[in-house]
Amino acid sequence: MRAVERQNTMQDLLIDPTARAFRAWFRHADRHGLIPTQPANTSGVVHHDGQDYVVLENVNGILAVYLVAASGRIKRLDDWPSDLQI
Questions:
Q1: If you average pLDDT over every residue of the chain, what do you get?
Q2: pLDDT recorded at residue 3
Q3: Contact present, 45 and 68 (Cβ < 8 Å)
Q4: Beta-strand relationship, 61-68 and 74-77
Q5: Which of 32, 40, 66, 69 is the least crowded, having the fewest Cβ atoms under 10 Å away?
Q6: E strands within 1-86?
Q7: How far apart are CA 62 and CA 79, in angstroms?
Q8: 8 A C-beta contact, residue 23 and residue 13
Q9: Partners of 61 in the β-ladder
Q10: Does 8 or 56 have the greater pLDDT score?
């Protein structure tokens, strides 16, 4: 039963760009020796000017923005459109 639950969780992670962005956010912090700020559950996919983005935010504002490519891959952006909001 656990193997099936784990498989479903991994499939969800591969499909859901928001889940992948959460994971990337925590990996980034770990790799750079940072203490990550918890993104809020209001974080998610935003469609803006023909592109999909995953916006991770909390009460302090936007933490990170990831571009969702047509292939489903995500890429963290250093700069993002200023009017991008959830």
A1: 86
A2: 52
A3: yes
A4: antiparallel
A5: 32
A6: 44-48, 51-58, 61-68, 74-77
A7: 12
A8: yes
A9: 58
A10: 56
